[in-house]
Amino acid sequence: MPSSLPVVSDERFLRNYAEVAFYGGIRGILRLPFEHPLDAMKTYWQAQPQIRSFRDVGVAIWRDRGVAGFYAGAVPNSVRVTLKEVYRWPLMMCLPQLFTTIWPSGPQDPALIKTLTGFSLASVESFIICPLERLKVVLMTRPASVTTRQTLQHIISGLTAPASHHGLDYLFQGLGAVYARQLISWVSFLAADAKLKGWARRATHKDYLDFGTLMAVATGVGLINTIAVMPADCIKTKQQQFAPSTRAQAPSPPRPSDPHPLPSAAPRSLGFVATARHIYATQGYQGFYVGWRVRFLQYMLNAAFSSALLEWLERRWILTHRLVPRRKEEAESGEGEGVT
After folding, report:
1. Rounded distance between C-alpha atoms, residue 137 and residue 26, angstroms
2. pTM of the predicted protein model
3. Where are the domains of the chain?
4. Can you say how many angstroms the Cα of residue 4 is from the centroid of all Cα atoms in its chain?
5. What's the CATH architecture for 13-247+260-333?
6. C-alpha of 294 from chain center
7. Which position among 90, 208, 266, 287 has the lowest Cβ density within 10 Å, counted as fewest Cβ atoms?
């Protein structure tokens, strides 16, 4: 084995990993009550593109389901957020240093290293969160005329359908769109975060940014992330939203009893590119940015806390405790200790 490959030689590695995962999990739990209603509004708006304003979305959800409508899909979303927050922060700390360790002669641009980290994270987590995303979107987009019992029957029918491969087809519907969204989201967030923080450090002549500067960085990160992610996110919602049947079919005509039909729901059989064409044909390019205002608020809440927490964790664990285990020759020579 080449000596440049990392080996677990630091006894603090597992402890530090667990602590970072703990902080990430706490962050996810604390922000969920505030972020979930925004996610519900954004998803509902994407499924009901005929709604014209942020206020109208809130009124429609309130009229259809009351307060509970803003927390539809909270159970699968809570599981999704908790899982993501537990592994994402340790990996965001580990992977950049790991890439630098195994590729010491490669490019040292922080944004490029963060881009590689984004590819790695998206490739793993898309398969983890896709089933939870599917259930969340189904619960958020069910028509007002469909009861909770009917929704559960719809889910069970999809999971037990003979052609569903033991429910995998149903749960992993929209996997390509989930992967595209996560890939774009991770790369844009990590690369923008690295670039904007680098510019901020040069502008302020400070290695450690204060809270106000971090919030300004988070605003830029949130805007870039929203612009980049929205098209894939809209495609994902169209592929995963509630449909009367799990079989491939064209959208059925709206029922008179349904106050909010799904006029632009793409047929289940459409793939990523075909769904994108369907959205463009029925709504134009604006269809890819339905709900972008809500998405920006959601990402501002997310990115603001993420940027601050990421800065703090990078200082605490990479500079002080060295989250990634040292290379074998460093462990033997005592080199590579964290900066105090």
Report:
1. 24
2. 0.77
3. 13-247+260-333
4. 33
5. Alpha/alpha barrel (1.50)
6. 15
7. 208
